[in-house]
Amino acid sequence: MKHAKPVPKTPWRVFGLAVVAVAVIVLGLLVVTRGSDSTSPDSENASSESPSSTAKGTTTTTEAPYNGWVNPKSSGSMWSTKVPGVLTFRGNATRSFYGMGPVPTAPKILWTYPQNGSMCGKSTDGSGTSTWCGSGWTGNPNVYESNGKTIVAFGAYDYSVHWLDYTTGADIISPFKTGDIIKGTVTTDPDGFPLTYSGSRDNYLHIIATDRGATPVELWKLSAYDGVQQVWNDDWDGSPLIIDDYMFEGGENSWFYIVKLNRGYDAAGKVTVNPQVVFKTPTWDDELWRTISDHQFSVENSVAISGNTVYFGNSAGLVQGWDISGLKNGGTPTRTFRFWTGDDTDASVVVDKDGFLYIGSEYERHNDRSTQIGQMIKLDPTKPDNPVVWSVKDQGGAAKAGIWATPAIANGIVYYATNGGRVLGIDQITGEVVWQKNLGSQTWGSPVVVDGTLIEGDCQGNLNAYDVSNPRVDPPLKWTVKLNGCIESTPTVWKGRVFVGARGGQFYAIGDQ
Q1: Distance between CA atoms of 238 and 199, rounded to whole angstroms?
Q2: Do residues 392 and 375 make contact, with C-beta atoms less than 8 angstroms apart?
Q3: CATH architecture of 67-511
Q4: Which residues does UniProt call coiled coil (predicted)?
């Protein structure tokens, strides 16, 4: 758990809830180890094209229109055609877009925010009350272009959402203050509505308007206690997805939500929302309740969507997929995929162009299932009875091993960072570990790969860049920039700059000039 705030365990059990009255799919227990024979090879260059004839009789190919929620072939691509940028955790609906180059070659710190002092706030979790500074897991900044400006937006431990000028680091509008620290990544509306979506440890998921002059205005908030039996705590770490006026989000209250936003504008031209929760479901089932005695079922990751399926994991290790194909016509989502990793799965599910899932799981319960399955896993959801394509273990070192960071995919390599400080390059097809490095301290920030450069921070304050232009060789170090405090947040690259926060209390813009 990421600094979780537990509440008293509830004895309530779920039997007969209609929303989870879906047949439990048999767990895929057979692990195909590295070097396995995969019958569904990844093809990052595959496309679904159909022939058409021109007036002159020549044959060309055109991309067939996609009839669904998210085209799997968009994996790795920018999310929005209306708002250029990184607008949510890991950039898009498949959690696989890390920014746009060029990447700095000899960078320095260009500006910090705030210029004086630190972003700090007091917060309470299971360990008591303490002061938190800077930004942490996941903390992936939004960087986007709007109305001739490039804006950097993020939430921090000073309870606030910030919107800064890309060039100078000055506030574009005043910070929006929530009631507690913000651990996750905000989402910027991908359809151009002046809206920011942010969770907080204050129990609420907030929708904030940014078109009211210098002051942001909250238009709506969803309580973690609203109409549900809460099972764990009331934080919102996940970064929402906004698609076709629907918002998809999981909460640490152990529930998954779909909200119809009903966005629009009033007579004065100001943005409006009229959200309606159209679907919610517990993220556990009876089998998981019986198996995991601590009943920690929270969703700390950011849900992913590929095709017509929403994917996410929970803190009991249940990775699941929900079919939303009929949602717009009033249909009820149904669970179509169930896989148990055995342990806390807070890293977001990543989906590639062929629909394969890449999972990062922690190793803290040390049970038989997680020991057998491993912590770095590739799944084929079209084979629900036996979905494991390959797996790699990370079970040594600290008492809590495994994966906190969300993996990255680039050029046939899957990049994983571990709690113990290992960074691995794994062959996307076979699961072979091609190379690995040890950074010497925890790596919770997710790997970022842009233009042949891998960027990864460590807990000693080093933001490191490695040359992965030849991804199958041990990548040499290109540069390191020293920041103040552990780098738990995930960096964003945008047009010559890298943006990231650190636990020392400040947020950084890093570039050549």
Answers
A1: 7
A2: yes
A3: 7 Propeller (2.130)
A4: none
